[in-house]
UniProtKB/TrEMBL annotation, chain A:
Organism: Coregonus suidteri
Cited InterPro entries: MTERF, MTERF_sf, QCR7, QCR7_sf
Keywords for this protein: Electron transport, Membrane, Mitochondrion, Mitochondrion inner membrane, Respiratory chain, Transcription, Transcription regulation, Transit peptide, Transport
A Pfam cross-reference name: mTERF
Name by which UniProt lists this protein: Cytochrome b-c1 complex subunit 7
Family membership: Belongs to the UQCRB/QCR7 family.
Main subcellular localisation: mitochondrion
Localization, UniProt: Mitochondrion inner membrane
GO biological process: mitochondrial electron transport, ubiquinol to cytochrome c; regulation of DNA-templated transcription
Keyword Transcription: yes
Subunit structure: Component of the ubiquinol-cytochrome c oxidoreductase (cytochrome b-c1 complex, complex III, CIII), a multisubunit enzyme composed of 3 respiratory subunits cytochrome b, cytochrome c1 and Rieske protein, 2 core protein subunits, and additional low-molecular weight protein subunits. The complex exists as an obligatory dimer and forms supercomplexes (SCs) in the inner mitochondrial membrane with cytochrome c oxidase (complex IV, CIV).
One GO MF term: nucleic acid binding
Automatic annotation (TrEMBL), chain B:
Any Pfam family the entry gives: TruB_N
Family according to the record: Belongs to the pseudouridine synthase TruB family.
Gene3D superfamilies, A to Z: Pseudouridine synthase
SUPFAM superfamilies on file: Pseudouridine synthase (SSF55120)
GO terms for biological process, alphabetical: pseudouridine synthesis; RNA processing
Entry superkingdom: Eukaryota
UniProt protein name: Pseudouridine synthase II N-terminal domain-containing protein
GO molecular function: pseudouridine synthase activity; RNA binding
Pseudouridine synthase II N-terminal domain sequence ranges: 96-236
Length: 512, 342
């Protein structure tokens, strides 16, 4: 008697836990007051008759329950598309329940699309909860631990899900991915054998190293949902553009989102870089291979950076080409930081354009580093950047050497001295020219200068004359007369903007 | 169970000072330090992965049909729920508190505290510690926010300013500040107690007070540039710039502030402040230990003559000692004179 009771209880609990979504949630509804009334009445109990109609046998029972575990997680993942639900019950998302087994059944079971079609209320279910089972069957049943229907974290599902545990073994950072909206549910829904493995094999065949696969998927989990044909087409496109196999592998591994972009978009970008920069095909390939995220991001920041380099900084076409081939990062650098560094190098350190083009790595360095080292050299009277004169210090050494090497080789001082000097730095000034005094003069700028008020124009002339005079004497302004940072008003900017706007208007009109 | 990360975190709980570079918001500095400390804490190797036991039934082909036995095999399976890739690094946020703040264009000593030491930070500031500043000024200009970052309003001549005129003005300002100090200390001036406190230099404002400068000194004067050293409490950097402006007005000219550099904040001096290359956990741990040992040494020195005063006044004692001995000041005054001598 007791034995049959135990069997019955086991049967009930197993059914309750594993298969029936609705029963569990109905249990919740009895004690949860915050369920909306409408939902309580109308909640449908999704029954999966495919399972219930199958014949009973011990091994099939176990298989069924095992299948049940996985589909349980996914079924809940489907019912709550917002994976980041808090502990509140799934009352907010009234998503119609879909049969998750449709793509899970591999042993030739029935493929069911909508539960309504499969549910036949007139059929007697194959197994009722009160049916007696044999002792062997009861003992063989593998009762999985109850998985929470809703969770804010993937760690509740990682032990039960093959996909997740294999991803962890690869080195994917699940804790970062679960913070992104919908990514957690997407990963749970993937099947390792059919979805993940083919793509991993594809990436390996491409040449991506095993150690990088984890990094790639951590940054771009959507590569696992991209269709294989698309991925292959994009790789074929890159190969057709004469990127070598190794460079394609390195590009994919360093820009994880690369293969998610369409061929048309990549083609558009490659064409843009080749056209705008005026580089040969080989050089464009080199630039893109060195910085593959140029093909991923938006083109607007690149266009703005190019404009800044041409207009504000006054680099010529060939100079810009050289800079970009040496330091492609200039194209995606932060505008404000780039102008700040250039302003300091050109106006404070008085380094001419050709020297900056010779050492473009200064544009990639940190502003504070350049400033501190320059001020230290100035304090030691060693700040001499003109190659024609003795005791010349190259910009490369100024910027690229680590601190200790810089102190001993370049400044001939100890690291301690450098640190003591760093602690005396306060906000410094720029010498007597303002930013707009040194702007490269093209047609727009000439017109803007013509429009300046007389006083501003006279001041500018005075400053330029003084600067020319000093450069002739190889001298610098006395420190008292250096321009403070905020005294550096961009007086030409409003006029320049006006002139450019007018010119564009005229061009628009003449086009029509 | 304390992991090595927790142990490293406990070592990091303390007060230390850094040198804030000019042109950078203090919050960015604090965030950078927090990121670096987190890197150091999480760099410790993770604990060994936990295992869980899973019972698997033998496949039915092995077991004879019709037998009532069930053979289970135990398998030790790694429990991935506590793997660092699944739950993230142990520490994702630590509380780094900032002492008296510095605005964007100032540089200097910035006191930070980690974890439990933030309580000590509030105690430190409630005890009215003074701060030392080096102000670089320039005569002949007036701007709308009294510093070089503002819009220029007025230009004046400054040829008539001599060193002794400047020092006279400074003495006058110091006098008025001293009077303010006496007023706000809320001590009855006609008592013996007041006299003793004043002699020892322990007069401090009781509760809230406006900014008071307890010391003012001219370091360097080369018209139009000059450098002042100020010891003050309850100040803001903007107030200090205003002081310079008012000083210019007193001298029948105008002045602006070109640089504000904090050289001491309470017991934290420039000597032990960490520059940005050293904003890492081993250097911070060393700085914390250094501060603690120096504090112990000062406490031992203070309690030797048998005084039984509270920590607050002890800190003030140390502060006064530092000001009187002027070791740190000598160092940076040498540096500043070299830097500005042209």
């Amino acid at each position: 008697m007791a034995l049959t009771c135990i069997q019955l209880c086991q049967r009930c609990t197993s059914l309750l836990r594993s298969r029936s979504v609705g029963i569990i949630t109905l249990q919740y509804s009895t004690d949860a007051q915050h369920w909306p009334a409408a939902l309580r009445n109308s909640f449908i109990v999704p029954v999966l008759p495919s399972v219930l109609q199958r014949s009973q046998s011990p091994c099939q029972t176990r298989q069924r329950w095992n299948l049940g575990v996985r589909s349980y997680c996914e079924s809940h993942a489907k019912v709550q598309p917002k994976h980041r639900n808090t502990d509140e019950l799934p009352g907010t998302d009234m998503v119609p329940y879909q049969n998750p087994l449709s793509h899970q059944l591999r042993d030739g079971g029935m493929h069911l699309k909508e539960w309504e079609t499969a549910l036949d209320l007139d059929d007697a279910p194959g197994h009722s909860a009160l049916e007696e089972i044999s002792h062997e069957e009861a003992v063989r049943m593998d009762i999985p631990a109850a998985l929470p229907p809703v969770s804010i974290s993937l760690k509740d599902y990682v032990n039960g899900s093959e996909t997740l545990s294999k991803l962890v073994q690869l080195g994917v950072q699940l804790w970062k991915l679960e913070q992104r909206p919908n990514v957690g549910s997407m990963l749970l829904r993937l099947d390792f054998q059919t979805d993940v493995t083919p793509r991993l094999v594809f990436l390996k065949q491409l040449g991506v190293e095993d150690s990088r696969l984890g990094h790639l998927i951590s940054h771009n989990p959507f590569i696992l949902t991209e269709s294989l044909e698309n991925l292959q087409a994009r790789v074929a496109y890159l190969r057709s553009k004469k990127f070598s196999a190794e460079s394609v592998a390195s590009m994919v591994s360093r820009a994880p989102y690369l293969l998610n972009f369409s061929v048309k978009r990549m083609d558009n970008r490659l064409g843009f870089y080749q056209q705008q920069l005026g580089l040969s095909a080989q050089k464009t390939r080199d630039v893109v291979a060195r910085l593959p995220r140029l093909l991923c991001g938006s083109l607007e920041p690149v266009k703005e950076n190019l404009k800044i380099c041409k207009l504000e900084m006054g680099f010529r076409e060939n100079e810009l080409q050289h800079i970009v081939t040496v330091i492609p990062k200039v194209l995606t650098a932060n505008k404000r930081k780039l102008t700040q560094i250039f302003d300091y190098i050109h106006n404070t350190m008085n380094i001419p354009h050709d020297l900056i083009v010779k050492f473009p790595q200064v544009l990639n360095a940190k502003y504070l580093r350049i400033k501190e080292r320059h001020l230290f050299l100035q304090y030691l009277d060693k700040a001499q950047y003109d190659p024609a004169k003795p005791n010349y210090i190259s910009l490369d050494k100024l910027v690229s050497l680590p601190d200790e090497a810089f102190c001993t080789e370049v400044a001939s001082a100890t690291l301690k001295d450098f640190e003591l000097f760093q602690k005396t730095i306060s906000y410094r000034q720029t010498p007597g020219l303002l930013r707009d005094d040194t702007i490269h003069e093209d047609g727009d700028v000439k017109e803007a200068l013509r429009r300046l008020p007389e006083k501003v124009y006279n001041d500018r002339m005075f400053r330029l004359k003084r600067a020319l005079d000093l450069s002739m004497k190889q001298a610098v302004l006395p420190k008292e007369q250096w321009t403070q940072y905020e005294e550096d008003v961009h007086y030409l900017e409003p006029y320049l903007k006006e002139v450019i706007r007018e010119r564009k208007e005229v061009e628009e009109w003449s086009k029509k | 169970m304390t992991t090595s990360s927790v142990r490293v975190f406990h070592k990091l709980e303390g007060l230390f000072s850094i040198y804030k570079p000019p042109g950078v918001h203090w919050k960015l500095v604090r965030d950078t330090v927090e990121t670096n400390l987190l890197k150091g804490i999480n760099a410790a190797p993770p604990p060994a992965p936990r295992q869980r036991v899973q019972f698997l039934a033998e496949p039915t082909s092995v077991v004879a049909e019709g037998s009532n036995e069930l053979i289970l095999s135990a398998a030790s399976v790694p429990a991935l729920a506590h793997h660092p890739l699944v739950c993230g690094p142990e520490f994702q946020h630590i509380g780094v508190g900032v002492g008296h703040r510095l605005d964007i264009f100032s540089s200097g000593v910035l006191v930070l505290g980690v974890g439990q030491a933030n309580k000590a930070l509030t105690d430190l500031y409630r005890s009215h510690v003074t701060r030392d500043y080096t102000l670089e000024g320039e005569f002949g200009m007036a701007t709308d926010n009294f510093s070089h970052t503002g819009r220029l309003i007025e230009r004046t001549t400054y040829d008539h300013i001599t060193r002794d005129k400047l020092e006279r003005v400074l003495a006058m300002m110091q006098g008025s500040n001293q009077k303010a100090l006496l007023t706000y200390s809320k001590v009855d001036m006609s008592t013996q107690e007041a006299y003793e406190l004043a002699v020892k230099g322990e007069l401090r404002p009781d509760g809230k007070s406006p900014p008071i400068m307890t010391g003012l000194r001219l370091l360097h004067f080369q018209p139009p540039h000059f450098t002042l050293e100020v010891q003050c409490l309850n100040e803001t950097q903007r107030y200090l710039c205003r002081i310079l402006h008012e000083m210019g007005l007193e001298l029948r000219s105008t002045a602006i502030c070109k640089g504000v550099r904090r050289t001491r904040d309470g017991p934290f001096t420039l000597q032990h402040a960490l520059t940005h290359q050293h904003w890492t956990s081993p250097d911070v741990i060393q700085a914390i230990q250094q501060y603690r040992s120096s504090r112990k040494a000062r406490k031992a020195k203070c309690t030797q003559p048998g005084k039984d005063t509270g920590t607050a006044s002890q800190i003030q004692e140390m502060v006064e000692e530092a000001a009187v001995t002027g070791d740190s000041h000598r160092l940076h005054s040498v540096l500043t004179s070299k830097a500005f001598g042209s």
